# Entry
Amino acid sequence: MRLDMEFTGLHSAFPQNNKPSLFDSPAEWYLKARRSVQRFTVSQFGMWCIHTTSFSFPQHLELWMLNSPSLHLAFSSCLIMALTIISVLDRDKMKKAIDEVTCWIAAAEEEETMILQDLSGIQMFEVQLVLRRALKNVWTQPLGDNEVMVKKVSPQHRWLLENSSHDSCQKELILMSARGFTNLFQALVKAKKPLVGHNMLMDLLHLHDKFYKPLPESYEEFKRNIHSLFPVLIDTKTVTKSIWKKYPLPRVSNLLEVYEALCSNLNPTDPTCPVIVLASDCSRYAEKKSPHEAGYDAFLCGSVLLKVAHLLLCRSTGVAAEADPSFSEYLGALVKYLNKVHFIRGGVSSINFSGVDAPCRRSPLLVVCVQGWRGLNERHIYQELKALCRFDVKRLSENQFILLSSKFKHARLALQDYKDHPNLQISLYRHWRHSPHVNCLLQVSSIVALWSLLAFILGGAPCHSV
# Structure
């Protein structure tokens, strides 16, 4: 099968350090990630505006407005404030344009025009808004992509032009021009086509929060909303992790490494394997690696999907696939992985966006009792054990810590290697023995029982009347 593919994407500038703890269920992790996503939107927006360029500014203006619908009612003031921020970056260019118009307007006759050149992006709107606001006897109109025509007009003519439906500087048109990735987002939602990503859970949170609605408090509601927006999700991380056990391929997880493994001699090919032909604008990806560039990552992700789907299709039939298999056939081979998005760590391997998540399956909890080693915290325990195996560590009490690993064999190794350690005693966690709540309850019960016994003994024998 020959596929002509053009890859587009959004290079994420969002923080990706929201890995869940092994102690977290998907719902618990969601609440933490939700706060992180929302904090980023509010606290870092100002710095983004200050450091952004004219090219990327419309996207951030759009995010700000979408997350605060009430700003639509006061669009003019918001826009002027935002443009004031961006003007700090383009002060010289704006000052030059305003100086040119100010000098020209004094001697110009009505209906005379002049051209402002070398403008780009949002500057085209910025210049027009500033000039119209400052000078009541001018009119502006864009010419091409980087020029603005300025015309001297009478106040009456200006009023007629402002109320014309053909004004290219209307607030609604400015908003539409500032709609960056939202246009693609809405096209994806409308198309209802399969949405493909690699390790895409955080991307789904940001898509929901930035381009749809603020993230809901309920984890289940978040899942329902995403499933409504994108009925078919395919996470290539989930698929590749599953098939590594069935094929003699190296167990890699990085998207570029996965792609290289599938393109290597370790992956036998056949004549029916899909051939990917890059679009002319993306031909450089055939010669140069550009990891973390949006278009290149999209190319990798699409290629991995087709190659893995082909492997699964051949395996399901037991023979080489028929010539030119259709995408619907590939989708059928992937059916068990649909809507299962990889959960980076934890008791489940994936989150099911079209149903109930699988029950959490964790390795046994271990408890570390510290003796003769003062001042230890979670980081010290982690550093001590990481040479043997990786654990998540949580403090249980002043001298006790809970350990949890993603693998059962790590628990066995820790129990064996620290069996006779002088300072760290590691054993299986027993709730009735180690839980602080249970210990507190037992202590309170013991005190109550002891006082009751003392009251009974010291109260003496009951008096008998004659």
Q: What stands out?
A: The first helix runs from residue 26 to 43. DSSP finds 19 helices and 13 strands in the chain.
